[in-house]
Amino acid sequence: MTNTLITGGAGFIGSHVIKLFVKDKSYNVFNLDSLTYAGSLNNIEGLEKEENYTFIKGDICDKKLVSSLFKKYNFNYVINIAAESHVDRSIETPTLFAETNVLGTLNLLENFRRHYIQKKDKKVFYQISTDEVYGSIENGLFHEKSPYRPNSPYSASKASSDHFVRAYYKTYGLPTIISNCSNNYGPNQFPEKLIPLCIISIINNREIPIYGDGNYTRDWLYVEDHAQSIKLILEKGKIGQTYNVGGNNEIDNIEIVHKIISIVDDKLSRPKGTSLRLIKHVKDRKGHDRRYAIDSSKIKKELKWKPTHTFQDGIKKTIDWYFDNEKWLKKITDKKDN
Predict the structure, then answer these.
(1) d(CA 1, CA 26)
(2) Is 154 a catalytic residue?
């Protein structure tokens, strides 16, 4: 069994990755998560019974803790998903994002470097990143060699952490991989992000805030497809490489809101278009990127990966999940309020 450290495994993306790896009994999975407002043990309920799973509450910035974990378990793989990720929060508290996303990643890299010994067993440090590091693009697609042009404190912090990962590959020869994904959606996403916020607002007849004109384009990736790509990249990706992972679903925010309204109103037996009145255009976000669009041809060609969910399928599954998991929603929002 390979000792695998997955950071941020109680969060949205991390919980789906954790579940996928725990199913594979060739992995001995260690989940390091500080359980901030967006992370919850409810996301990984039941895994504590699995023999190949260990949860550790802690911060990736904690030098003493992280050092002790590397000494004790001599991890083969490190998959760094832990991050502060909400752009709005990064505008309000940029220092927090720098601490977690940059210094936390650096702490993991330093410990990986200290404990990295060239042996026959495979070792990899895998950094999970975002397409937001490329900035906004008017035409065409982001590819792996696109220059980094981050425009928010969040994307700047992720860009910086990516640069450190590349530097450790070049300077110290550490086996590293980076992947940059497009916007994830699906079950377990904290309801500050567009899609769950929209679903919950419609259910509760609350206003749906839309930045500016709402014509901000993103590529949307169903979270389970992303988790599958992460496992594939870890197992078959090339050391020192970057892989872009997208869902082939480039859609404007306002169009997404209209799609969700149509589906949720139907589920609630409301007349068609009832919840359109809930849309409220609000003052635009500072430095708001107009369009992200990602080219995933490299991972499709080299690793034979492609998303299995269309946006129509994925959004229906997501809406159904939120309808069926009111207890989860109450627990995680009560935690935020406290």
Answers:
(1) 5
(2) yes
